[in-house]
Amino acid sequence: MLEKPIRDRKAERHAATRAEILDAAWEVVRSEGLAALSLRDLAGKVGMQAPSLYSYFDSKHAIYDAMFAQGARAYLEQVRATPLTGDPLTDLRAAVRCFVRFCSEDPARYQLMFQRTIPGFEPSPETFAIAIEGLELLERRLAELGVTDARSIDLFTALGTGIAAQQISNDPGGDRWTRLVDDAVDMFFEHVTKHLPLTRRDPT
Amino acid sequence: MLEKPIRDRKAERHAATRAEILDAAWEVVRSEGLAALSLRDLAGKVGMQAPSLYSYFDSKHAIYDAMFAQGARAYLEQVRATPLTGDPLTDLRAAVRCFVRFCSEDPARYQLMFQRTIPGFEPSPETFAIAIEGLELLERRLAELGVTDARSIDLFTALGTGIAAQQISNDPGGDRWTRLVDDAVDMFFEHVTKHLPLTRRDPT
DNA sequence: GCTCAATACGAACGGTGTTAGAGAAACCGA
DNA sequence: TCGGTTTCTCTAACACCGTTCGTATTGAGC
Question: N or C terminus of chain B: which is more exposed, having fewer CB within 10 Å?
C-alpha cells in the first residue's frame, strides 16, 4: 500500500482533530443542553486550551455550523434510506415518521437545526444548502405522490414540526407520539385525497 | 379620598418599578432577541446600575419568570375574550386562530413560553399554574364540543404549535398562514367528526 | 541546517450574571 | 423632632464567557 503524500496526512490529522472536537461537542450538547457548550470545557474534553480550538474553527458559531451540517447530512441520509413502497399512504407515513424520529431522537440537534435559538447564529450558505437538499427531496417525494400545491405542503410540514415539537417537550424518547403520526398522516391523507387523486406508483 | 397607608404606597412604588423593568425587558427582547437581554443594558434603560435590579428580582431567571407569567396571563385573557358561537367548526377555528395569533404576534414571547431555550430556566410552579389554566380552559372548550380523547387533543395542539412555529420562522407578521389555520381546522374537524359527533350548543 | 507554516500556550480584553459591603434615603415609633 | 430600622442604590469585585495577541514549540520542505 502506497504511503500518502505528507501534505494529505497533515490535512488528515487536521480533519481528525476537527471530528474529535465535534464529537465532544455533541456529547456536551446532548447532556448539558445546546447553549451550555463552553469553549473552555470543550477544549478540556479534547485535551487542549480554549484558544487552540481556533486552529480548527474560526469561532464558536463555526462549531455550531459544522454540527448543523452534520445534522443536515444525517437527515438526508435517513430520508434516502427510507424505502419507497409505491403506496401513497405508506410513503406519506414513512416520510413524516422519518422526520419526527430524526427530530425527537436528539432534542439538542433539533434545537440547533430547527429552533435556531442561539443568538446571532445562522448556518452558512454551504451548510444551509445541505438542509435545503433534504427538504427538496421530501418535496420531490410528495410531488411524486401528487401533492404539489403549497398549502398542502405547508400543512404537511406544520403537522410534522408540530408533532416533533410536542414529542420532544412532552415525551422525549417515548412512543406515545408515534401512533399520533399515524393519525396525523391518515388525517392529512384524507384531506388531500379530497382535492387531489394521489398517484400510485409501482414499487421500486 | 382617603390617603393610603404608607406601607401600601411603598409596595405600590415597588410594583411600579418592577413593571417598568419588565416593560423595558420586553422592549429589548422584542428588538434584540430573547437571549440578548443583559442586566447591565436593562438597568441602563431604567436608569439604574445592574446590581440595583436585585432589589426587584432575585435573578435574571426571575425576570424571565415574571415575563412568562405576563405572557401566560395575556393568553388566558385572549382565550376568555374569544366569544363562543355554539357552532363547533367556528369555535374550533377561533381557538386555533387565537393560539396561533398569540404565538406569532410576539416571537420572543413564543420562544420564552414554548421553546424554552434559556439554559437552566424553568418557570416557577406559580407561573406555570397560570399557563396550565389557559391550557385547561382550551381543553374544557374542546370537551364542550365533544372532543375528549387524548389523541385528538394531541393532534389539535400539534397542529396549532406546528402552524405557529412555521409562521414565526417563515413569515413573521404575514397573513399567509391564517388561511392555513382554516385548512388545518377543516381537516381536523373532518377527522374528528368521523369518530365523534360534535355537540352543537346554543350560542351564549 | 535553515525556513516557514501550523499548532499550542499563557495572558489579557471586554463582556456576562452575581455578591459583598458601604452609603444614602425613606419610613417607623417615640 | 429625634433615633432606629428598613429599603434602596452604588462601587468594587468575583468567576465565568468568547475571543485576540504574542510567543514558544513543533515538524515538514528545500
Answer: N
Q: Summarize the confidence of residues B24-48 as an average pLDDT.
A: 95
Chain D bases near protein Cβ (<7 Å): 7-12, 16-22, 28-29
pLDDT at position B4 is 46
Q: Is the CB of B120 under 7 A from strand D?
A: no
Q: What is the ipTM of this complex?
A: 0.88
The CATH number given to B1-57 is: 1.10.10.60
Sign of the torsion angle spanned by Cα atoms A73, A77, A80, A83: negative
- pLDDT single digits (tens) A70-119: 999 999 999 999 999 989 899 999 999 999 999 999 999 999 999 988 98
**Distance between CA atoms of A174 and A168, rounded to whole angstroms?**
9
A69 pLDDT exceeds 90?
yes
- Do residues A79 and A98 touch, judged by C-beta distance below 8 A? yes
B59-204 classified as CATH 1.10.357.10: yes
Backbone φ, ψ for residue B116 (5° rounding): 55, 60
Contact criterion met (CB below 8 Å) for B117 and B111: yes
d(CA A57, C1' D24) / Å: 22
